[in-house]
Write a structure and sequence with these properties.
With 200 residues, the protein is an alpha+beta fold. The chain is built from four helices and eleven strands, in the order αβββββαββββαββα.
Length: 200
């Protein structure tokens, strides 16, 4: 996507936000399972694509974390009292988790919240990283910072459904593995929803 690709990347992401779509959840793929009525905890995650080639920055969470240990995730976390909103939380967490300066991020917009089985309403924030970026993983929180190609994460055909037992029942979920990285669960569901919007 080099050579004038940044405006095209911005246009594609912005166009995706204009596509009407319902909010997503971890419960969507399981027939007969309704989204529970909970006091959802607000959170924000940053889907940051680099301007050079559209690669998406992701993290491998520490295996010692309470929520989603060892999983592939977008940088982000719950909204703290000092955060103005989910966008502020996503940018703050991205700075803390991967060393991304908010000044380097061109914000494009946000997707509808994704509700997780752990009780979070996660707002995905779309952005473009401008300029060189050398990630710095947060010790104790992030085991690795890596990228996946734009063509992989924005292609609906990269995703498939798998099943496993969870809390005594079989649960269906999306995966989009590539190389050593097993992209699945809430992060895969969020990115699949974006991929569908980008194809529309």
């Amino acid at each position: 996507m080099k050579g004038g690709a940044a405006p095209d990347l911005r246009a594609r992401l912005a166009a995706a936000l204009d596509v009407a779509a319902a909010p997503s959840s971890d419960f969507d793929l399981n027939a007969g399972v309704a989204v529970p009525d909970l006091d959802w905890r607000a959170a924000g995650v940053l889907a940051a694509f680099h301007e050079d080639d559209g690669r998406l920055v992701l993290t491998k969470r520490s295996s010692r974390l309470r929520h989603h240990p060892g999983q592939i995730a977008l940088p982000g976390g719950k909204v703290d009292p000092g955060d103005a909103d989910e966008i502020a939380a996503a940018l703050r967490e991205a700075r803390e988790e991967i060393g991304l300066d908010p000044a380097q991020v061109e914000l494009i917009g946000r997707l509808p919240p994704h509700r997780t089985v752990t009780g979070f309403a996660v707002t995905p924030v779309l952005g473009i990283i401008r300029g060189p970026f050398a990630p710095i993983p947060e010790a104790g929180e992030v085991d690795e910072v890596f990228t996946l190609p734009y063509a992989h994460v924005t292609n609906p055909e990269s995703y498939r459904t798998e099943r496993r037992q969870w809390r005594g029942d079989w649960r269906a979920y999306l995966v989009a593995p590539m190389g050593p990285y097993y992209l699945w669960g809430a992060t895969a569901r969020i990115l699949h929803a974006l991929a569908l919007r980008m194809r529309a």
